[in-house]
Amino acid sequence: MKKRQILIAAFCLAAGATAFAQQANTRIIVSFSPGGPVDFVARTLAVQLGKELGHTVVVENKPGANGAIGATEVLRAEPDGKTIWISSVGAAAINPALYDKLSYDMQRDFAPVSLVVNNVELLVVNDKNPARNAAEFVDNARKSKSPTAMASSGVGSIPHLAIEQLADSTGVKFLHVPYKGAAPAITDLMGGQVAGFFGDVPGLIGHVKGGKLRAIGIASKERHPALPDVKTLEEQGLKGVDTINWYALFVSAKTPAAVIDSLNKAVQKSVATPSVHDALLQSGAEPMTSTPTELAALVKADTEKWAQLIKTKNIKVE
Q: From 69, 187, 200, 215, which residue has the greatest number of CB atoms within 10 Å?
């Protein structure tokens, strides 16, 4: 009996030590499932960030509710800078216009830390599509007797908003086909069920380099370093499609300013480290950091921009 009590006591002590160690760690909360592009960026950053901070940085996935579950997890934690939210532009700057009620308010609840990467949108078609560039794709859609079907990763997603911007830019009506995520949309694009898809470069570059998809345009002012031969939409005479799906780090608004400043410096050093920088670039993401003030301005500008488009197009989530 005494031996059993000793074992139980030892187990409790070990569990307590583990819990304490986990509390001492910094956590990056990812609002998406493991294996996706946001998760990849978080895990690529975490090891070097841990070295800069002097302790372990762990990545925890809290997917669901379009980012709200991850956001809420951060707000429940102590505002000591050890629980960080990595968010794409969607949860940070698009959700406020899509949902009447959110469990968080970006301006009130969160303080910006830094950008981590920029992800431009790439327009792709399958290898059997006759269009060799975006201008041809739009011209073929204009001549079609029925609306050309374009997939997105969901209503109100960056790929969806890119389609709406392309329609406004060209005067061509497209048939928006929303999916639950990019993976099924890409599968149906390869199968010919839809004609085109806008997506983040990291999620598409493998299919493009493997010859399964054809990249026909970049929705950015400059060409992408990983795809230098793919012309921008502006170069092809298609203006006004300016979708940037950035990923950035935020903490609770109650976090002390000195802690945020330290985090920002650690993130800047981490992203500039060659191993991290090169890994992000090779994945198709564009490494990019910022000051907290610059990120705050970006969130504000994108929130206003996307809110206007969502209101004009009367986009609603079910």
A: 200
- Contacts with 233 (C-beta within 8 Å, 6 or more apart), sequence order: 123, 134, 166, 169, 217, 218, 219, 239, 241
User: What is the domain count for the chain?
Assistant: 2
* Residue whose structure tokens are 């000793």: 6
Q: Residue 167: give its domain's CATH number.
A: 3.40.190.10
- pLDDT above 50: residue 264: yes
Q: How many C-beta neighbours within 10 Å does residue 240 have?
A: 12
- 236, 268, 287 - which closes a domain: 236
Judgement on whether residues 154 and 291 belong to the same structural domain of the protein: no
pLDDT, residue 213, reads 97
Domain final position from 236, 260, 292? 236
Distance CA 301, CA 304 (A): 5
- Does 318 reside within a domain? no
The count of C-alpha atoms lying within 13 angstroms of the C-alpha of 2, restricted to the half-sphere facing its C-beta, is 0
Cβ pair 232, 220 in contact under 8 A: yes
pLDDT at 21 exceeding the cut of 70: no
- Tell me, rounded to whole angstroms, the distance of Cα 98 from its chain centroid: 17
- How far apart are the C-alpha atoms of 71 and 41, rounded to whole Å? 17
Report the distance separating Cα 221 and Cα 223, nearest Å.
7
pTM of the model: 0.87
pLDDT over 70 at 231, yes or no:
yes
- 72 Cβ partners below 8 Å, 6+ apart? 103, 104
- Percent of the chain predicted with pLDDT > 70: 92
Tell me the CA distances in angstroms from 306 to 88, 201, 311, one per residue in order.
Answer: 14, 21, 8
User: Residue 102 above 70 pLDDT?
Assistant: yes
